[in-house]
């Protein structure tokens, strides 16, 4: 029998957005994307795996609920990890025949546009890789689970290369800079809703590829240039440049959604108000101090430097009052600072709870094995929670 | 002294959108656009003009309020009409020296994205043209007042040619088909707000031209093809084709706004809900029966055929309940028809008054001189209302 392996893995929030596949089964994207990986101490997926000769079938429990193991994406990940292990001869053949149990949970709401599937598949694939002692890069296997999961396989700032090979072998993630490179970089996630989204990313991308004429131009002309520019901005720690490209690319991704037929709209009035407020804040500040970016949902992710966090939190609290102010900001601690009067005029306070809560986090490391024994599976290889 | 000339002129709602100027002073667009002219019996601007030797200065009253005549756009229109009259020798030189009084009003809210300036300038220029007996096409002069005003100079379906001449002489409107060509074509304008918009069209266009990479692609590749296709659809009275292009072009125009930096956002959650509902309605109907289009504001304009109006009004009443249901739909009369149960499931009724009221109208004629004596100026050439 195998020991139980437990891994935690981070979410990542893209600054150059992935939208559109060139191969739906292999999850190969039409364009490169770039993201920052966020600290696992604040948001993470946690996954325990083990393989036993006595297991009758592969089993998976997600957030406390038994799910089917027979999703194509899950099957693809397990098959490819085993194939890699066989190629590397990292474990013996018997071991590869044993069935596996997987138990996974997120410490944040699923499918609310908070990159839960990215963290989840990065976690699963990393845990399986450790179980089968696979040593090579597994980002292309995480990609088979959820495209953006490949970026959560590394910490710091990460590039997902679209690649050109039909088999996807060159569609992998690489690290641009590790988490220690730009330690001042933090993030505030403004949770505007935690309901499931109307159009899944998979469907939204498919419609965009089939119908948006602007998507073609974005992929061919806009993204390649932006990718090079933002990598340079990251390497040079040029925050205004990083922030400007981040905001422009978020807006262009949502523009392409709107140009799809029927249109795919993920931003709401609240999202657009956040965008408006950040532009005004930067304008009054005289330089770009905060960047917003929106994934396939209404939540804003703000990237900003540590020194600007107290003022920006005060601004958000002013405009978006909460019925539960003590629990409004979770995650990292930061100093309190009253809002400078010059920023008071940006926008009147809105009605309560348009922003439900804020997660304060920072750029962090990639997946990590947990060695304190806090597994999600018990000695028998069954979920502890059941 | 001259007689008083009074003209009414229509609004027009574009189906291929104008967004972006190649010359800001001459108001020359980067792309062709196409619109339908809407019936003046429902919505119109009304303008009275006269010229008198005893007037000390040019004077203008808009919606009951004296305004400055020294706006560059107003000056350009008056100067060019007089130059045209001089070239055509249509009036004597003394007449051209006399100062003019202009009194104008709209029978609908100004600057709420209801094309008020288009109707206003088309009305002014047509009235001045009649005053100075100008016989030639004046669409290029209306264009100097407000770009889209040139399309309100004709009835039916109208194309505004971008033109290529630096002086704008070929940036004129031409009629695609007159109002009698497709008499079944009607429109429902869903007024979601009548407050002034955040970013004026002029500023929004300038930002788009300076910053949107997608705008270039739209202008070069998308609009030329769509323009030809929609003109053919109009000529062949192919409603589904007309409607599909109309919706796609509206979405692309707003996509370009979102791709601008900072982004220009005119649609709201209510606008997107209307779009969603129309797509579902068409899907359930098994063919495209309604098209939405949105200008630089949250209001939807729905194009549809007369036979489908009762059902669509019932759908709108179901989803957007009004606190004043008797006055919810204004304009043309239509039969009442209960909503088919199959459409009930499209969307739950929303909270009251998200849509304030609906204007039911149809495609109509161009500007018309009023000969019943109901001038806005009295015998002395001063506003009657004062």
From TrEMBL, chains A, B:
List GO BP terms, alphabetically. cholesterol biosynthetic process; isopentenyl diphosphate biosynthetic process, mevalonate pathway
Keyword terms: ATP-binding, Cholesterol biosynthesis, Cholesterol metabolism, Lipid biosynthesis, Lipid metabolism, Lyase, Nucleotide-binding, Steroid biosynthesis, Steroid metabolism, Sterol biosynthesis, Sterol metabolism
Matches recorded under InterPro entries? GHMP_kinase_C_sf, Mev_decarb, Mev_diP_decarb, MVD-like_N, Mvd1_C, Ribosomal_Su5_D2-typ_SF, Ribsml_uS5_D2-typ_fold_subgr
- Quick one: which pathway? Steroid biosynthesis; cholesterol biosynthesis
A Pfam family it matches:
MVD-like_N
Mvd1 C-terminal domain location, by residue? 187-368
**What does the record give as the reaction this protein catalyses?**
(R)-5-diphosphomevalonate + ATP = isopentenyl diphosphate + ADP + phosphate + CO2
GO cellular component terms? cytosol
Name the family the entry cites: Belongs to the diphosphomevalonate decarboxylase family.
Q: What does this protein do?
A: Catalyzes the ATP dependent decarboxylation of (R)-5-diphosphomevalonate to form isopentenyl diphosphate (IPP). Functions in the mevalonate (MVA) pathway leading to isopentenyl diphosphate (IPP), a key precursor for the biosynthesis of isoprenoids and sterol synthesis.
Instruction: Name it.
Output: Diphosphomevalonate decarboxylase
């Amino acid at each position: 029998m195998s020991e139980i392996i437990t891994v935690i893995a981070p979410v990542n929030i893209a600054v150059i957005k992935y939208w559109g596949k060139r191969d739906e089964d292999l999850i190969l994207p039409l364009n490169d994307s770039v993201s920052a990986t966020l600290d696992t101490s604040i948001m993470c997926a946690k996954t325990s795996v083990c393989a036993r000769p006595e297991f009758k079938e592969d089993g998976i429990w997600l957030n406390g609920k038994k799910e089917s193991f027979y999703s194509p994406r899950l099957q693809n990940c397990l098959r490819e990890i085993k194939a890699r292990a066989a190629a590397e001869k990292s474990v013996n053949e018997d071991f590869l025949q044993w069935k596996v149990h997987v138990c996974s949970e997120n410490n944040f709401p699923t499918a609310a546009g908070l990159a839960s599937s990215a963290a989840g598949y990065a976690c699963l694939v990393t845990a399986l890789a450790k179980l089968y002692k696979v040593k090579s890069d597994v980002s292309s296997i995480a990609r088979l689970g959820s495209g953006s999961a490949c970026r959560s396989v590394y910490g710091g700032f990460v590039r997902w290369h679209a690649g050109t090979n039909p088999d996807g072998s060159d569609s992998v993630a690489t690290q641009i800079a590790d988490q220690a490179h730009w330690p001042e970089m933090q993030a505030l996630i403004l949770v505007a809703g935690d309901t499931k989204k109307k159009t899944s990313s998979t469907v939204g991308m498919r419609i965009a590829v089939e119908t948006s004429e602007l998507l073609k131009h974005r992929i061919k002309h806009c993204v390649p240039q932006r990718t090079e520019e933002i990598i340079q901005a990251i390497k040079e720690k040029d925050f205004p440049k990083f922030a400007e490209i981040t905001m422009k690319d978020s807006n262009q991704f949502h523009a392409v959604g709107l140009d799809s037929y029927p249109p795919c709209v993920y931003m709401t009035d609240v999202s657009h108000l956040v965008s408006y407020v950040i532009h005004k804040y930067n304008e009054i500040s005289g330089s770009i101090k905060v960047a917003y970016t929106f994934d396939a949902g209404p939540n804003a992710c703000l990237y900003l430097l540590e020194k600007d966090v107290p003022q920006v939190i005060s601004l958000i609290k002013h405009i978006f009052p909460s019925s539960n102010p003590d629990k409004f900001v979770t995650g990292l601690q930061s100093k309190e600072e009253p809002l400078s009067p010059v920023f008071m005029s940006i926008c009147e306070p809105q009605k309560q709870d348009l922003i439900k809560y804020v997660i304060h986090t920072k750029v962090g490391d990639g997946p990590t094995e947990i060695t304190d024994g806090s597994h999600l599976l018990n000695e028998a290889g069954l979920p502890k929670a059941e």
